[in-house]
User: What shape does this take?
Amino acid sequence: MDSILSIFNYLSTYIVIAGIYAIFSLGLNIHWGFTGIFNIGISAFFALGAYTAAILTSASPSPKMFEDFIWGGNLPESLGFFNLGIDLWYFVGMFGAIIVCGISAAIIGWITLRLRDDYFAIATLGLAETVRFIFLNEKWLANGSRGMYRIPKFLGEWFPPAYYNYFYGIFILLLLFILYKIVQKAMNSPWGRVLKAIREDEIATSASGKNVFLFKLQSFILGACIMGIGGVVYAHGIRYLDPMTFDPLMATFIIWAMLMVGGSGNNKGAIIGAFIVWAIWTWTDFLPGFLSDPNLKFLMIGLLITLVILFKPEGIIGEKKVKLSSKTIDKELEPAK
Amino acid sequence: MNLANRINTIPAYFKILLGFIITLSIAFVLGVQDLYVHGMLIGSLFALGAIGITLLYAIVNFAHVAHGDFMTLGAFLAFPLVASVVDVEYVSYADDFAFTGLFPALGLDQVGLGPFTFGFTILLAIPISMFILAIIAIGLEKFVYRKLRLRGSSDVMIAMASFGVAILLRGAISTIFGTQLRSYDRISKPFLKIGWGIDVPPDLLFLGIVALTLCLLTHYILQYTKIGKSMRATSDNPDLAMVTGININKVIMNTWIIAAGLAACAGILIAVGSAQMVPQMGWKLLIPIFAAVVLGGVGNAYGAFIGALIIGVAMEVSTEYINPAYKLGVAFTIMLLVLTIKPRGLFGGKD
Assistant: This one.
């Protein structure tokens, strides 16, 4: 009985982490899969989302707890009645994180999205490192390297701690489903079709009268906001944040591997890829000897990305090709806004 | 003739010299001449990386994201050659990990050559590491990048592949050597007092000279040899170069050899200069190096060199006024400013 329970516990933790990664993968799919913008600074939006939520919801700092930051929003207390008994503060924090991620994406995108895609990539890389350094060095902001460790639990009073991950896992899957529906809807809309057109041929798209830059900027902001949501879910799920969390390996590289393996350009692929790669990542822990070496996994992530690009660029489930019949052509030709 | 035209007629080298003299005088006035000189020397190390990236941009037209990890790999390739005994308590897969490097095994284990902290074996290790890395680069070009190019993949897709290669290399390095701090065998030496309040570690002076020599060598290759001429022709107009009988594949191979050689050398010099090396050091250098490339104008090797010096000086001098942890942020900010105000860089380059 105990062993069955421990397997279930393990699975619930697996679903929590893989589900969080799936949210990032979904956000990255908007950037790379649909618009073709090369973002290698996912960890920037991960960090901004997670820290914003953590700062907004953490209790005011106390020196007794070795906390050096100067302000914690303490939303669960300060919202008081407006929590309505269902911990609405969680969504207020999430809203804050979305705003912060959206604004920073808008600023970086405004500067760099007009230029070649690879300048943009380096700019996102720089943003990721800068954000990490700010959180590491500005102790007054988010407690520096000691990290934030009094992040409240979402609906923590409703579920006993032993079973909390079951609830949170289900919650994440639900949230993932909603986000999936939203992204799916957006990408099948005329707006999403413009993004795909930009990915395929920027010049032709701008020749047909679309403002490529603005569409790219919108796509970048939307993806960044979804990554911010992933950060919020992570912050309240793991309930400990320090700058090491946002090391490029675990916060950027692995997400790229997930998207590439699952199939860029396909939202289902992005989600499935996250679950597959995270399964490989955690389940190789049980292998004997040097096979469970974390550095070897790192090597595998790089190998996976390179091999997928070389031999199976469409991933496990590639993008669905639009079949053209007279009916779909009529639908495709609906004027885009 | 208006003023702008007049300024445009001043030769570039004169402007650079003038800029150098003016900034150096300002540094003296502000009392940061020490940091200025440090920045110049560190910048000359960045230049080795930046020239490689910018040449690859010019010839194969993609952002080589793995360049930082090329540098790390260069440094780590020299490690088993010159580090005498490594005794580490914990390397993930083996509890006792100790070996004698190749040169120390041959009895060449003196360190502290003259005023320097390292032995002369490092000078033997540099060309070996450059050679091995050039072979690795050729292999990657043959089996990864050329395949993608022939398939007609976009430049971003190829940059993406180099991103995968970057992670792969870093993973391989940390699997073999572990992730803790390493350094070549060394003994501490006092700083060299030059006067006017400038103290430099003799190592850094030596490294700067090696870097400058290599930059001059690259200049010679680009300007006066057939290899360099065909490279410049290809960069200007690949189709025209092809019809005049230039073998593009050979040009691309030569570019990889030069870029990888410079990267390997840069890696070793940086590992010597900072007296430590970790697998992620190259990835962190990517930001200042790309900032240098963008500042000098993408595809412009001379621009990359000057850009690297400027970035090096800016990063070092900034530590006088702000938290030294934000050095990278300074490089990043400069890059963003250049991209907004003058996206073609100071000396003009590809868009």
